[in-house]
């Protein structure tokens, strides 16, 4: 899932995302909650209609961002009081508030409000945090069950939306359609706590499960160990979502281990810094060595950037701080990630895995 923090994958328009084959985007509740505000998006018919995106959207709960505001937040049983990173204004997110916000935004998949346990955390702290996340998951589910029909696209008739002006087709007509609320497993870096978190979250009952609280500063090998041990305890016939991971090689490995969904800012953020993923390894396009390099960025890539432009041109755009540099770099990186996943799907369909990774990342 490419990340579209503010209902936008930075630098890339929705028609290009469609051409790239993006099937689902992630958007961040925290950022949309602050700007433009949930109520505005809800009145615009929900995120799909607001951003003109008929394909799937997942929103996170806002928890991860709120917990990242180390100096600006206060956690209690009830929820998290925090100050906006934009203007310092005071806000409060709780399981109920996070559900209300995500129902108002109207993504297809929404996430329980969890506490992302910091790293490192001692045993008592990791347990207390995991227990809090379980209690919050129950509150999320209760609120969601009571309010799931408040989702903007379930409240409106498709004919009404169509008559509102834009030629849109994919607005659900079934008013019984609801979002899917996923639970999140926490438990720090302790496999036993992770198992308990998985069991108790499954007991509450969700249509999909995420592994949260990773990529928080721990060594990569530990991430992998915790992912693999947690996966064992999650139902393989329901979506298993690993949050916030990873490099092209990592996503290929995790997918082959049984992870069904991943999101990461890496392809888009790295692109904006001139760091490009290719079949030959990472390319830092800003380097002078590419100044007169006429070859394609990645000769093995069939994206619209590699088919058309030279490394020399991409390097010039980046060095000149041209907006187009960010656009083209992002398009290539997204294509590379999506192509990686297409390759993995083909391996899975063929019932075999390659001996080596898909790139030299
Ligand atoms: Zn390319």
Description:
This protein has 361 residues and is α/β, with parallel strands linked by helices. It has 16 helices and 12 strands. The protein has helices at residues 14-20, 29-34, 38-43, 47-50, 63-68, 95-105, 123-147, 152-155, 158-163, 191-204, 220-231, 248-257, 266-272, 304-308, 311-319, 323-350; strands at residues 24-27, 56-59, 73-75, 80-83, 90-93, 109-111, 180-185, 209-211, 240-242, 261-262, 275-278, 281-284. The strands form 3 sheets. It has a 7-stranded parallel β-sheet. Strand 3 and strand 4 (80-83) form a beta hairpin. Helix 7 (123-147) packs parallel to helix 10 and helix 12 runs parallel beside helix 16. It is globular, with a radius of gyration of 21 Å. The chain binds zinc ion (ZN). Zinc ion binds at residues 297-298, 301, 303, 305-306, 332, 335.
Walk me through the topology.
Layout: H1 14-20, E1 24-27, H2 29-34, H3 38-43, H4 47-50, E2 56-59, H5 63-68, E3 73-75, E4 80-83, E5 90-93, H6 95-105, E6 109-111, H7 123-147, H8 152-155, H9 158-163, E7 180-185, H10 191-204, E8 209-211, H11 220-231, E9 240-242, H12 248-257, E10 261-262, H13 266-272, E11 275-278, E12 281-284, H14 304-308, H15 311-319, H16 323-350
Parallel strand pairs: 1-2, 2-6, 6-7, 7-8, 8-9, 9-10
Antiparallel strand pairs: 3-4, 4-5, 11-12
The structure holds zinc ion.
């Amino acid at each position: 899932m490419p990340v579209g923090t503010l209902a936008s994958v930075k630098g890339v328009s929705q028609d290009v995302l469609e051409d790239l084959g993006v099937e689902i985007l992630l958007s961040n509740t925290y950022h949309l909650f602050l700007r433009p505000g949930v109520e505005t998006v809800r009145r615009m018919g929900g995120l799909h209609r607001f951003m003109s995106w008929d394909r799937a959207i997942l929103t996170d709960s806002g928890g991860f961002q709120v917990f990242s505001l180390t100096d600006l937040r206060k956690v209690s049983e009830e929820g998290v009081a925090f100050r906006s990173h934009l203007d310092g204004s005071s806000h409060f997110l709780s399981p109920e508030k996070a559900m209300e916000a995500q129902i108002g935004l109207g993504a297809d998949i929404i996430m329980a409000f969890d506490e992302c346990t910091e790293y490192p955390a001692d045993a008592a702290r990791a347990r207390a945090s995991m227990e809090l996340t379980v209690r919050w998951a129950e509150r999320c589910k209760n609120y969601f069950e009571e309010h799931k029909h408040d989702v903007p696209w379930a409240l409106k008739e498709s004919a009404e939306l169509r008559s509102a002006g834009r030629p849109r087709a994919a607005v659900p007509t079934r008013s019984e359609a609801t979002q899917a609320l996923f639970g999140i497993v926490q438990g720090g870096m302790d496999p036993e706590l992770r198992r308990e978190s998985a069991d108790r979250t499954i007991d509450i009952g969700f249509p999909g499960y995420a592994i949260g609280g990773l990529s928080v500063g721990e060594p990569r090998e530990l991430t992998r160990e915790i992912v693999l041990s947690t996966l064992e305890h999650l139902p393989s016939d329901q979506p298993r979502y690993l949050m916030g991971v990873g490099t092209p090689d990592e996503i290929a490995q995790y997918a082959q281990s049984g992870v069904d969904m991943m999101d990461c800012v890496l392809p888009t953020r790295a692109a904006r810094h001139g760091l490009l993923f290719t079949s030959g390894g990472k390319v830092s396009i800003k380097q002078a060595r590419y100044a007169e390099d006429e070859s394609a960025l990645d000769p093995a890539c069939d994206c619209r950037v590699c088919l058309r432009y030279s490394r020399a041109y991409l390097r010039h755009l980046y060095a000149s701080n041209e907006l187009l540099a960010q656009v083209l770099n992002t398009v290539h990186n997204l294509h590379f990630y999506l192509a990686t996943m297409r390759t993995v799907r083909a391996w899975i369909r063929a019932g075999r895995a390659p001996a080596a990774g898909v790139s030299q990342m």
